[in-house]
Amino acid sequence: MLAKMIDKLISLKDTKIFEIGGQTYADRDLIRVPPHVDRPACISVSGLDGICKLIRTELAKIDTVVMVQAKSHKTVEVMTTYLDDFSRNILYKAEADAPGLRTGFRGREVALIELRSLCIPNEGVNYLLELLSRMTDENKVSTNDNGVTQTVEARQGVALNAMVEVKPRVMLRPFRTFLEVEQPESEFLLRVDADEGIGFFEADGGIWKLEAKKNIADYFNTNLAGLIEAGKVVIMQ
Known about the structure:
The chain is α+β, with helices and mostly antiparallel strands. It has six helices and 13 strands. β1 (17-20) and β2 form a beta hairpin. The chain starts with a helix and ends with a strand.
């Protein structure tokens, strides 16, 4: 009796197949267990030159076509073409260590430091440095007392030393992509607020990112030209 019960319980574990209305059904879900495949670990670097060196050194061992993709303005991935199991190996990855220029308001002194340290000098930087040199950070109180009445004037925030027309938009070239390529120039909206300070806001809709990706692709097209002509390396954006 006990043996029959055990056999019954074991039979309940079996997957049963049913044909209903011309369709095939199973009474439980089946999960495919993929076979284990040894894959190389992805190597991360911070520059495009490191990617080129890795490709030149290890391409013979890889023994397949590799594709270099500029995934964004600050990310590059190198992968193999289809393997026997239709998968790909991600071989190398580069992440740009670029500071960029944050959008938003900042004080006058911070703006001066960021323009000199985070941007490539150009006409826009020169204009902003001159504009900031005419500004002062005010935080003072003055009084006027004639013995009968007293008036108090408080000044706080950013003020111009003279009436100056402020351009609404300026062109800047912050360090935003890999340093081996040309930094794209883009338009920034300029705002001056007495309480919040100087504000920079991106105003080109992100077109500079497309230019950065093109510059990255051009770098690889130049530095890996021989391997590209041999059909061993493909560059993508």
